[in-house]
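If your schedule permits, I should be very grateful for your opinion on a structural question. I would ask you to consider whether the tokens describe a fold that such a sequence might reasonably adopt. Thank you for your consideration; the sequence and its tokens are set out here.
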Amino acid sequence: MHRHRRATPRWLAAGLLAASAALTVRAAEAPAVAPIELAAGVYMLPGAKGEPDATNLGRVGNAGFIVGRSGVLAIDTGTSYLHGRALLAAIGSVTDKPVRLALVTHTRQEFLFGGAAFRERGIPIAMHQAAADLMASRCDGCLKTLRATLGDDAMRGTTMYQADIRYTDPMAVEAAALIGRSLQILYFGHSSGPGDIAVFDPRTGTLFAGGLLDAQRIPDVADSDLPRWREALRSLQALPLETIVPGHGPAGSKRMITQLERYLAALTTRAQALLKAGAPLSEVPDGAALPEFASWDQYDTVHRRNASIVYLRYERELLLK
């Protein structure tokens, strides 16, 4: 005797399909970001390797947060609205204290465009005035490029915005008072980029270095003032640092600073040598090979571009003498 399976009513089947689709959309829109606790109340939200693409959803920059007695400071907002939502969900998985402020460390697309997700929650975003000016001048173009690279679905809800708090003196940002924890916002002038800042938690010796440091990755020098950047790195070396969260790459120790100093020194030395030898610009990317750093992320692309940028800067200096 055969038993006939009762047919599922159409309305129920439709409802189940709709619920399944909604769950799929919610899962797709905010993939989990696993917080890494570096020290008491200090968390890193790691990014992926490489340049933004459809595989990594552009989420290549590190973010983080610090939990105080009365609230949370978010450090950087992610690549997109959906990424920003994922970062906020990660914070919520650790603490139910309110996020009082989001602090953007520097003007790169993977740290900026999650801002809409924070602002819809009523969380103000703070940015140095020089970084805010740079964002306003060029990031419409960055956003168009991200949409073309990542697709409309990944960039859904992502918009340009203006920072709610723009400052020139980091002491004016009351981050410590807002969250009930002593913090230092460090600004060394135009160094790795205009308006680039770092966040230091003296209690644990943790530094969120933003654009000042990348780990095991070639840094982009396009917006930098190299001499002042190297001065800033010497200032960081003097701090009692236990753990550093770079803009890209894994957290680590002060050795990260030493490695970056060595790269910048080697880059400038090589570019100057090529200029002195009369090498044409077309030969600079190949002529500036630095095998010591060949294993770093973005060596085959960003390093070659860096060499040309630095070569042209020194050539311009010679012409102006």
